[in-house]
Amino acid sequence: MKFYIYEKLLSELKIVRILLIIYTILHPLFIILFYLNFIEFSFELIFGIKIVFVLTFLTFIWLRLPISNFDKIGETILICLFGLFALWMWIPDRKQLNEMIINYNSKI
After folding, report:
1. Counting Cβ atoms within 10 Å, is residue 76 exposed (0-12), middle (13-18) or buried (19+)?
2. Are 92 and 13 in contact (CB under 8 A)?
């Protein structure tokens, strides 16, 4: 088991939030490109960008968040089913992050 440091996780979480804001801003653009077919390869482009963003968030959940594997599986299923809405729901704030770290580190 790893020992998690609050400040390090908080700085990584800020980066993830910035990526999520960028993804949220790009999401309506993806919908417009997909439905109006401005570009012939829009489906491949949109799908590729979405996969990169979602895999980035899932990697952060699986490798960096101090939660149990059962919770990680649940979060992964929610993100796959509900997409952008679920991505905003799983991001912990400072208080939740601190509680997760204390709970996880106390088990070590």
Report:
1. middle
2. yes
